[in-house]
Amino acid sequence: MDKIKFYEQLAQILDIEEVKPENVLKDFETWDSLAILSVLAMADSKYGVTIKADEIRSVVTAADLANLVEAKQK
Amino acid sequence: MKCIFKNKKISAIISVVPKEEYRFDDEYPIFKLTEDKAKRFKKMMSLDRHRIAPPEVCASDLCLCGLQRLLNEGTLKKEEIGALLFVSQTPDYIMPPTSNVLHGKLGLGHDVICLDINQGCSGFLLGLMQAFLLLEIAALPKVVLLNGETGSRLIDRCNRITYPLTGDAGSVTVIERCETESPIYVDVKNDGSRHKSIMIPAGAYRIPSTPETLKLREVEEGVLQSEEHLHMDGPAIFNFTMTDIPPQIDEILSFSGDTRDSIDWFLFHQPNPFILTQMADKMKIPHAKLPNNIVSLFGNCSSVTTPLNAAFNCGEQLQREKLRVCFSGFGVGLTWISMIMDLGPLNACKVVDYEPI
To answer: Nearest C-alpha of chain B: how many angstroms from A27?
Structure first.
């Protein structure tokens, strides 16, 4: 998985310029139910994986999210 | 579970929407959204406007208006009504059944079956199935299926997540026998283990209404909800629509021997434009064959969304010609139903504004 591309896509969802792996998702003002829905859609359509409701809720940083998607692809 | 019905047809669909139309651009300040956030939300969900019934208008009133129109225009005669099915989550009373109330208002004879069905987004298709079953076993002339929903009452008006996407509406569908076999292919699936994904937790008998269950709590910044409001587990519902519906569509297409090309219209329930676009892409159904405008123009009206979709987007065409359609309804239960059938030419297929009778 191209993580740099993943962070770019995440930044687009969050409507900001850049997302760094260590960023805490809850710190972004735009990390809301819409963003979560967009992340699920991106995971499904671009990476072919399904993220469960409790999994997305337990994610803390952007890196956690990228690792979750990557782990599911295997 | 798959089944086939024969010698049955839909002969008319009339959907009724309240006159009161509200635009997101005017409403967003009540959701306490900044202009930036409102723009982002509007763009992602293609929000434009929705129809909300005034407080004194019930779901059954919207249905009665449509039914009266069909009777006045001569499309249906009172003595032809052998069964009244009322599908709703917002009935007039806990008891008696709303179908009985409507039976009384219409002044129908005693030889009529009245039945209320508690279903949401798949309620048009579950109602159709019930109508086909009744026509199969009982010697009644026509079945009238009423779908009515005032979903705006189930949420807080300031709830920016659900309120702008919700609409109130009613619909009347007439179902009868026909000489041609015209098989109708149905697939019904249920998963009650996920019933908490879409629910109103309190206010009935498991958790009766108390001042505590009516208390508003903040579930997300600025979003208030009580235990008697509609609760939706967004991620769980998204996964449901992406995981369970596309395989069902593949199954029903192969069950009926159809292809994406042989179907003229995919008339689906519309939860919101974002989810439906994702679904269409996943199922590789061209957007031009899968209308996705009801939530933007009327709001998601639960079980009424599907017949409103047919009447609004294909009404004139369905009054003229026969079309091959694939219906799909999915939601509360969780229940998901798909149906492939020939539809039209219909005696009536239109959307009208509500007028009190």
So the answer is: 13
